Amino acid sequence: MSTGTLRKNELIYEGKAKKVFATEHPDLIIQEFKDDATAFNAQKKGQIRNKGVINNELSAHLFEYLETFGVRTHFVEKISEREMICKKLDIIRIEVVMRNVAAGSLVKRFGMREGTELPIPVAELYYKNDALGDPLMNDEHAVVLNLATLEEVTLLKQTAWKINAILREYFLSKGLKLVDFKLEFGRHDGLILVGDEISPDTCRLWDLETNKKLDKDRFRFDLGDVEEAYLEVRNRLLGSPANA
Ligand code: UDP
Question: Which CATH number does the domain housing residue 49 bear?
Answer without folding.
Answer: 3.30.200.20
